[in-house]
Design goal:
CATH class of the largest domain: Mainly Beta
Strand order of the largest sheet: 1-2-3-10-5-8
Structural class: alpha+beta
CATH architecture of the largest domain: Sandwich
Radius of gyration: 16 Å
Helix content: 25-40%
Strand content: 25-35%
Number of helices: 5
Shape: globular
CATH superfamily of the largest domain: Jelly Rolls
Length: 191
């Protein structure tokens, strides 16, 4: 994993650059994202480590992937991300994790994640922009996906696809660890 300070600095630099490129004031980005102006300022000054939800809302408001917001090396045509440089964005209370493996803009943000949920852990996700689709491949254990208040059990070896424009959560209600690979496809802005 990259040093947390490296990720914080990259987020600060990229957020400010992307906000400026799109002509958004601090107030405008705060309004578009639902993230307070004060929090945007703290992030741009690298004074805070925001939650996954905050980073998702900012990326969605800017029309970019989370990976682009966190990218600390945009110099190569072929981007190879070693396992130890993937960005951990969620830590569960019992040792679970959500790790952003990679992401691109094609034509909207496309992200590849690996998630590890320990028994009893839950991660709640805010709604993504309308038209966002997720594909979850359960590698180990069983995932309980809650979408629109309805629970769906997805066993190991299965793949589920769903629209993620509403609140949803990932739960491990089993006795063994749950590991999954997740693809998130966000439509380009204005679509």
């Amino acid at each position: 994993m990259p040093e947390p300070d490296l990720v914080t600095q990259a987020l600060a630099r990229n957020l400010k650059r992307l906000r400026t490129e799109r002509g958004h004031t601090l107030d405008a980005l705060a309004a578009r994202s639902g993230v307070s102006r004060g929090m945007v300022v703290q992030i741009e000054q690298a004074r805070t480590n925001p939650s996954v939800g905050t980073v998702v809302r900012l990326a969605d408001a800017l029309g970019v992937s989370i990976a682009r917001l966190l990218d600390y090396d945009e110099t190569s045509q072929v981007r190879i991300i070693p396992a130890d440089e993937a960005v951990r964005l969620w830590n569960g209370p019992d040792g679970g994790s959500g790790v952003l493996l990679s992401g691109i803009e094609a034509p909207g943000p496309l992200e590849l994640w690996t998630w590890h949920l320990r028994p009893g852990e839950t991660h709640a996700s805010d709604p993504h922009p309308a038209g966002t689709v997720e594909i979850a491949r359960i590698d180990e254990g069983e995932l309980t996906l809650v979408l629109d208040g309805r629970a769906h059990r997805i066993p190991a070896g299965s793949t589920a696809s769903y629209e993620a424009g509403t609140a949803h959560s990932y739960r491990n209600e089993g006795a063994v660890d749950c590991r999954l690979t997740l693809v998130v496809s966000v439509p380009p802005p204005g679509k």
